[in-house]
Amino acid sequence: MQELQDEVIIQQVLQGDKKAYAVLIGRYQHFVFTFIKRLTNNHEDAEELTQDVFIKAYHSLSSYNNTAKFSTWLYSIARNTTLSHMRKHKITTTSEEELKINDHSTQTDIDRKNKTIIINTAINQLEPSDAQVLTLFYLNEQTIDEIAHILDITKTNVKVKLYRSRKKLKEILDKSYRHEFEEYQKSGK
Fold it and tell me: What percent of the chain has pLDDT over 90?
């Protein structure tokens, strides 16, 4: 069965099928959570804010106008909700993301998770705005146009931010994690 398009699901919700909204939550919950966690560096805040975002989106669904993808509209809500929360609580981003490795993982899975941990830790060392643009582009697979809409900046500014953020990430990885990546490459993985 082909996946229903977001717009079809939205119409179902607007016509009274409240259960259809669960499909949108399931589709975007992980991405919204990851995006918010990048900004706050706090798991509990990210969980709470993710719920808030989906509640706000549900109540504002009738204002979604199809000019941008639903995901872009949703990430705009996520960004604004998170920034408002951070201003209200004067939150700074200082903690590192904690990832656990399953004891039953294969060596390849462990190596992949270790690489992911290193990259996530390096991203968390970036300024929140740099981490945000990298997360939107690479993890959430948003286009330049969509990121410009979400962040309310020009496409040129998005490209500049991506370039600078990649450069800063590379510097962090080269400085702090060069040995780990050299070992990883030597092992032929």
Answer: 26
Contact 140, 151 (CB under 8 A): no
Spatial separation of the C-alpha atoms in residues 101 and 77, rounded to whole Å: 32
3-state helix, strand, coil in the chain (%, to 5): 75, 0, 25
| Alpha helix (H) residue ranges in 61-154 | 70-89, 107-124, 128-134, 144-151
Same domain, 116 and 179: yes
The one-character DSSP state at 51 is: H
Look at the alpha carbons of 40, 43, 48, 53 in this order and tell me if their dihedral is positive or negative.
positive
Q: Which domain holds residue 124?
A: 99-189
Q: Say yes or no to pLDDT of 189 above 80.
A: no
Q: Is the pLDDT of residue 167 over 50?
A: yes
Please give the structure tokens belonging to residue 17: 């099928």
Helix (H) or strand (E) holding 66, with range, is none
Residue at token pair 């960004």: 79
pLDDT score of 107 more than 50: no
**This prediction's pTM:** 0.57
Indicate if 84 and 110 belong to the same structural domain.
Answer: no
Same domain flag for 68 and 86: yes
